Amino acid sequence: MSLTVPPDLLHAAETGPVDEEAFVACVRDSLPYAWETVSRVVADLETSNADFADNVVPPPTEAERGQLLRALASDAIRAGLERHFGVRLAFQNCHRVAAFRLAAVGSETHRRFTSSRGQLLNQSPTLRDC
């Protein structure tokens, strides 16, 4: 299961629209490693002039790797994170999370990172188990 949903949030989802902040809080509380990783990457982006910042450090355990996979493989979770942080996220190799400034989406840097070629060039024997 990706998220641990509080009963009141589940009830809200069963009866109508869900508050965005409540959804994001559920993601933060359910997937703390993923939240910390995305938060750190966004903070790195905010303190630079670059178009993007990324995480290249593999998670310490499979549980943390699973959190990143669940957060970034879910359209709803990923979109919620992007709206909350005001960035576009990109993902490679079970741990390489990048945050792009919205103005950089579609740029050469963004296209290169998210391309098939970029994915292939980011491969190594140590990453094949993820």
**Spatial order of the strands in the main sheet?**
1-3-2
Helix content: 40-55%
Query: Based on helices, strands and strand pairing, what is the structural class?
Result: mainly alpha
Task: Domain count, please report it.
Answer: 1
Name the beta content range: 5-15%
Largest sheet, in brief, is: 3 strands, antiparallel
Q: Rounded to an integer, what's the Rg over CA atoms?
A: 15 Å
What pattern of helices and strands is seen along the backbone? HHHEHHEEHH
Q: How many extended strands? A: 3
* Unreliable sequence segments: none
User: Mean pLDDT across all residues, rounded?
Assistant: 89
Number of helices: 7
Shape: globular
Roughly how many Å apart are the termini?
Answer: 19 Å
Pfam families: KH_NucS_shadow (PF20704)
Describe this structure in words.
The protein has 130 residues and is mostly helical. The protein has one domain. 55% of the residues lie in helices and 12% in strands. The chain contains seven helices and three strands. Strands 1-3-2 form a three-stranded antiparallel sheet, sandwiched between helices. Strand 2 and strand 3 (96-101) form a beta hairpin.
Brief summary of the model shown:
The chain is mainly α. It has seven helices and three strands; from the N terminus they run αααβααββαα.
Topology of this structure?
Elements: H1 7-15, H2 20-30, H3 32-46, E1 52-54, H4 62-73, H5 75-85, E2 87-92, E3 96-101, H6 108-114, H7 116-121
Provide the descriptors you would attach to this structure in a database record.
130 residues, 3 strands, globular
